[in-house]
Amino acid sequence: DFFTRDPTPNEIIAMLLLSVNHGAKGIVAWSFPTTREIVDMTGFLTKVVQGHGFEEFVLGARRENVPVVGGEGMVDAAAWRRGKAMLISVVSTGDRRSASDLMYLDLPGGRHAVRFRNSPLGRVGWRLLPDKRLACPGFWTDGMWGVLLEVDLSDD
What we know:
By secondary structure, the protein is α+β, with helices and mostly antiparallel strands. It is 22% helix and 31% strand.
């Protein structure tokens, strides 16, 4: 056996979003037969990627890397832009608590967010700062997790 245990729901989200962040165009369920918890989480993620414009962003727009300030290298982010909307996938790959007070996303091309449009998967702690950057408390890197944030972009 390669794995010594089944992944947790948060680890499933992190693994699947991390693959999309790096070019995958879809998600694949965990090996079967599996636990009810894994079936439920992959079913939930299927609904997320089938709705909220996820397909239009990931399949219809160019993927861009999103620099993360803070998070001590334990956070991976990617974005897809369609017009004045951007879908951002943020994944914590860390298994330790970050020492950073806040981590920020520097949106590609110097773009700025003006409001949260949608959050199809988590948004815990994320906020829009007065300087139009997205920020989250650094402790968020405590363990694996992933979020999808959809924002409206400014004209500048």
